[in-house]
What does this fold into?
Amino acid sequence: MLLDLAEYYVEQNRARDKKSALLRGRTIINLFFENSTRTRTSFELAGKRLGGDVVNISAEASSIKKGETLIDTAMTLNAMLPDVLVVRHPDSGGVKLLSEKVNCAVINGGDGTHEHPTQALLDALAIRRRKGRLQGLTVAICGDILHSRVCRSNIHLLNTMGARVRVIGPPTLVPETIDRLGVEVFHDMKAGLRNCDIVMMLRLQTERMQGSFVPSIREYFHFFGLDHDKLACAKPDALIMHPGPMNRGVEIDSEVADDIDRSLIREQVEMGVAVRMACLDLLTRTLASNAPPNGGARA
It folds into this structure.
């Protein structure tokens, strides 16, 4: 249902008049404790294109810098009676904790290494629009599996939708128990890419690494960076994805990233606005028809 609704918003966003009044009178607060370009901006555009009032708050501009706790921040914002909080937080579980202290809908914009639900949804939409389906596809998720919330959310969604998921990366960047999530594990890039329909590259998240996980950036790219030689192991019509931001020459070669026929990277960005419009639409409808007495809806 959500992906179908997002399809509608794709068309609305491509029209000359992109705005509606669906969220007129509604207030959306984007509360980001980590830097973001794509997620924060797409949620801002989504809220504004639906006619809502959007407020952006970054950690640097909040009272968190003055020593205020996350719960106190939540209670303060709750007193302002927003309708939706979009939250990104560096700690896994931070968004859930905050959601338990407010009376509005809360959308997870990424929490630590745990989840990034709307990224998985936009990835699924981009794949479905190009392939016509998700069921039966083989999707390889490659790179820094250990630190990637995008990976975890995609595994859950793709498995639910009937896709076959592989994860590829060096042993130091692949959790030992990842196979329990229903994926195949490969430590050889070419073997893992064999006959894949989708190749999803992940950013090497050096900011989350304590210690040495790869010998060098050059060696990492040699073994696990996507170039035409490795891509040749996938199906001839395999599509390339990356949640961004990209480190060119680290996890992906520029020629591959910019391949106009096979790269979905820019399309992923476009789908992000549509998916987040669909999320805001559905959540605010749910709140209007069935407001919970304690706590808010969560996504």
In short: Residues 135 and 160 are 9 Å apart (CA to CA).
